[in-house]
Write a structure and sequence with these properties.
CATH superfamily: Winged helix-like DNA-binding domain superfamily/Winged helix DNA-binding domain
Strand content: 15-25%
Low-confidence stretches: none
Number of domains: 1
CATH topology: Arc Repressor Mutant, subunit A
Structural class: alpha+beta
Radius of gyration: 16 Å
Mean pLDDT: 93
CATH architecture: Orthogonal Bundle
Oligomer: single chain
Helix content: 40-55%
Number of helices: 4
Largest sheet: 3 strands, antiparallel
Amino acid sequence: MTKEEVLQATLRFLKDNPKTQFAAIHENIKNILKARGEIGAITTGNQYYSTTQYVDISDSDAMLVNEVIYDLIIERVLTPGVDKHNLNFPFLTVTSMDRLNRFLRE
């Protein structure tokens, strides 16, 4: 995925889930990659022989998700925490839907 694709997918996810966690954002990107057939159980072969292997998200894609999350924190779209009991990472809250919408391309 490109950084822009990760950014837009993350923003769409955050629009529906303004209080979330790092892992949920990562899982959303993994689900997109699974739907594209880029990760997960991938079967190759022909009518006589096939093999299935499990392909996980690449290190570079996983780190790209982190980079996008930190970019959104720097831009004050996201802030750590969701409530008084969970004020730190891995919890995240959308600071402002207006700011989020400025970055979102629909």
